[in-house]
Amino acid sequence: MTAPAAIETSGLTKSFAHQQAVDDVGLSVPRGSVFGFLGPNGSGKTTTIRMLLGLASATSGTIRLLDGAMPDAAAEVLPRVGALVEGPAFYPFLSGRANLHRLDTADRYAPRSTRRRRVNEALERVGLSHAAGKRAHAYSLGMKQRLGIANALLTPRDLLILDEPSNGLDPQGTREVRNLVRSLADGGSTVFVSSHLLAEVEQMCTHVAVMSTGRLVAQGTLEELRGHDHVQLRIETPDVGDARQVLASLGLQPDQGGPMAAATVTADLTVPGLHPEAVNAALVSAGVRVRGFAADATSLEDRFVALTGEGFDIDH
Ligand SMILES: Nc1ncnc2c1ncn2[C@@H]1O[C@H](COP(=O)(O)OP(=O)(O)OP(=O)(O)O)[C@@H](O)[C@H]1O
Ligand SMILES: [Mg+2]
With a 6 A CB cut-off, is 91 part of the ligand 1 pocket? Predict the structure, then answer.
């Protein structure tokens, strides 16, 4: 029997007065995954996350979080969930450290005896130790974001839900968050992390779901989303006819680009187990003069643009 999913939604929908911000979303987040929740600005990521956490009510649909139905099981389930949601609120005149102490005090499942140590460890993990004594109102956006992540890490969690954790961070901070997310997963937590940055998701996630204007347009492992065997070969050669013959003999279907003598032949690498290196070797050993050889894997970005249509533009 497979373990139940960490997050499972069915028909999840949220209507505001003038729009469906989230429309019939069926997420299935496997336990132990680092699950990227990817979508352009305004596609419904934060609204979905707020519903998952019981911070907003769903117009319709169901949510299972760990072993419970939300929002009914919130009291049992949420202590096992650490969360960072858009724009975390802190007491401005308390230091970062004091804010974490307060937040931890409010968590009745967090043991008091270890509070000081856990707060310091959380600050350390997000790289905020040096600024821990500074008042939160003097924090930059990136520092506030780090403090929000630290809050989610105060106690060990089965599931972390992080809404754009690298929002406002510089490249170094972004890298640190990426590593942090991976280390959380290595520690056994499931991590559900939203982002509008494809490259970021590609680098830290095992699974991904793509949102577009409130709808879930794809979900699966990164490999599934990239699509198998979407490698296109491009060969520049004066020996176009011979190149085409060699490719055809390998089971590929070559196209010829351009009427020039030294032309480009392209072919999708559609034969399972046939690697670009083998194609190149076959061309050369058949006497084809290969001036250029490229094997371009379909990037996730191509897939993302194809799925969301408008790419990363905000359309409402
Ligand atoms: N309280 C609200 N009232 C009305 N409309 C809302 C409300 N909250 C969100 N929306 C709308 O729902 C849509 C989805 O918003 P949401 O914040 O979930 O997107 P997002 O994917 O998190 O975007 P971003 O990447 O910018 O954070 C947007 O069009 C937004 O304007
Ligand atoms: Mg958002």
Answer: no
pLDDT 10s digits, 116-175 = 999 999 999 999 999 999 999 999 888 999 999 999 999 999 999 999 998 888 888 888
What separation in Å is there between the alpha carbon of 86 and the centre of ligand 2?
6
Residues by chain with Cβ below 5 Å of ion ligand 2: 45-46
Counting ligands in written order, the one closest to the CA of 52 is: 1
Long-range contacts of 195-198 (CB under 8 A, 24+ apart): 195/36, 195/37, 195/38, 195/164, 195/166, 196/38, 196/39, 196/40, 196/41, 196/45, 196/164, 196/312, 197/166, 198/38, 198/300, 198/301, 198/304
Residue 31 has which token pair?
A: 């336990």
- Residue 133 burial class via C-beta count within 10 angstroms: exposed 0-12, middle 13-18, buried 19 and up: exposed
Let me know: does 216 contact 27? Beta carbons within 8 Å: yes
- Single out the residue of 83, 307, 86 nearest to residue 216, CA to CA: 307
Residue nearest ligand 1's atom 1 by CA:
16
CA 108 to centroid of ligand 1, rounded, Å? 32
All domains in the chain, ordered by first residue: 7-226 (3.40.50.300), 231-297 (3.30.70.100)
Q: Which pLDDT does position 176 carry in this prediction?
A: 86
| Interval 30-64: pLDDT, tens | 999 999 999 988 999 999 999 999 999 999 999 99
| Chain segment 173-212, per-residue pLDDT in tens | 888 889 889 888 988 899 999 998 888 898 899 999 999 9
Q: How many CA atoms lie within 13 A of 27 on its CB side?
A: 32
Question: What are the residues whose beta carbons fall under 8 Å from the beta carbon of 115, sequence distance 6 or more?
Answer: 101, 104, 105
The average confidence (pLDDT) of the chain is: 89
* Two tokens, residue 86: 């858009």
What pLDDT is stored for residue 100 in this prediction?
96
DSSP-derived 3-state class of residue 191: strand
